[in-house]
Design goal:
Two copies of one chain form a homodimer. Chain A is an alpha+beta fold. In chain A, 42% of the residues lie in helices and 26% in strands. The first copy, chain A, has helices at residues 13-16, 20-28, 83-88, 109-118, 120-146, 149-160, 176-182, 187-196, 214-221, 225-228, and strands at 31-35, 40-42, 50-65, 68-75, 80-81, 95-108, 168-171, 202-205, 208-211. In chain A, the strands form two sheets. In chain A, strands 1, 2, 3, 4, 5 and 6 form a six-stranded antiparallel β-sheet that branches. In chain A, strand 3 (50-65) and strand 4 (68-75) form a beta hairpin. The longest helix of chain A has 27 residues, at 120-146. The radius of gyration of chain A is 19 Å and the shape is elongated. Chains A and B meet through strand 4, helix 3 and helix 5 of A and strand 4, helix 3 and helix 5 of B. Chain A binds a DNA duplex through helix 8.
DNA sequence: TCCCAATCTTGATGCAAATCAATGTGCTTG
DNA sequence: CAAGCACATTGATTTGCATCAAGATTGGGA
């Protein structure tokens, strides 16, 4: 197994349940690309030619409409994106772009769909992966529809913090500009919302956010661990 | 095959690709329930006990947060809902409620997951079905983030209309109250947005909407057939 | 058939976030 | 080191939609 996909422990979960032979067949045709930051991987409206799996770095999925655009999600390491378009062989509804330098595994879309038909482990892993992506979108839509900007930011901060309650410091992993877009705001508005959170014990210093008591933010955003966690 | 699931042509696509034996095993444990209108089928936060497939009638999926709620989608006939929660065995993120009287197929969730592991046809159909649901959500989020209320309504009307351009009449299948919720508005706002569309040749009479020229609405909503169609 | 309740519409007002504009800050790069 | 540039903050203003309130219309049940 070449291509840098050599460590089983860091292997994409999607491919982990495949039979050895089918895995071999699939991996033989895949390649790894290294992309610089801010490089578009694919654009909405086009049919997928590859299934992409992020190996290293950060990729964002975003939607564009005229000159407006909005970030939908940041792709996790070892996660495929966007499976749904590849499975249904339908035009992408989102675009993808690297945020940092990134290494991306590219599996020919047709080959992937063939494997899907032959390999039980793969098709289950695929169903599971899309399910998780689906649930993440439902959470986004819930936040967008039912929460104010202040609540959305509070919610994001709580989600960043491992474990409930207490105080702590968060290091933003993305620019505020992108964070604004991710939670459906303009940068100016994010700035103001951060300011408005100071009365709730949130202090901002660059990309360092210190929170006096996360319970306050949980309450503010009406964070629900059954629904919002994970 | 009892339970009213007797006509292959109207059979849920999800189960169509299953092997006969596995299908039998699964169907033996399923039941069909008949529910009156406005009956909650399941609530967010709870673990799924059944996979539900709508056979007849209308069901809406919605999210609630305190006393605010918002309709996410209306379930189509012969469509499963909400697959993602059943596949991952994780708490529902949405609630479901009948809009009209409805007949719903209920497959025990654990049984379904077992079949998923054994039946290739089922797991592929599942991946495909969730993919479609995923794509529908992306469209929702796109509309919510990037379009104004007026554009969202225009977009909805264009989507209702089969084929591009021309004039025509649309019969709303749902109450305006629900339509408002579906496109992320309050009823009062929907009413005003409808009024504002009169200058673009949209005339409203109860649940009857006549449109002089759909091309005008396509332009207004920046409808994109690659992305928005289907 | 009539009435009650839910839905829908219209008007007046409020508020949250976008927009426009100016300035400040930190990074990169010559 | 300075110049340049993207990012970030702050202020003033506008806008879009929600909210509150009051009728009008519709539809379903006794």
């Amino acid at each position: 197994m070449h291509n840098g996909l050599h460590n089983a422990s860091t292997e994409p979960e999607l491919l982990a349940g495949m039979s050895a032979s089918e895995f071999q067949r699939l991996i033989d045709d895949t390649s790894v690309v290294e992309l610089p930051a801010r490089k578009v991987v694919f654009s909405e409206g086009l049919r997928p030619t590859f299934l992409h799996i992020l190996l290293e770095g950060t990729v964002e999925l975003f939607i564009r409409h005229g000159r407006r655009e909005s970030c939908i999600t940041l792709v996790q390491k070892n996660t495929p994106f966007v499976l749904a378009a590849v499975v249904t062989d339908a035009p992408y509804l989102m675009s993808a772009r690297t945020v940092t330098e990134a290494r991306i595994l590219c599996i020919p879309a047709g080959k992937f769909r063939s494997s899907l038909r032959r390999d039980q482990g793969l098709s289950i892993a695929t169903a599971t992966a899309i399910s998780e992506a689906y649930r993440s979108l439902v959470r986004q839509l819930r936040s967008q529809r039912l929460r104010s900007a202040q609540m959305r930011l509070a919610h994001y901060l709580v989600g960043m913090h491992e474990g409930a309650g207490g105080s702590g410091t968060i290091q933003l992993q993305i620019s505020k500009r992108r964070l604004a877009s991710l939670i459906g705001l303009k940068p100016e508005s994010l700035s103001r919302v951060f300011a408005s959170l100071s009365q709730y014990g949130v202090h901002v210093s660059g990309s360092q956010i210190t929170v006096q008591d996360f319970r306050v933010l949980e309450e503010l955003s009406q964070f629900d661990y059954d629904i919002d966690a994970e």
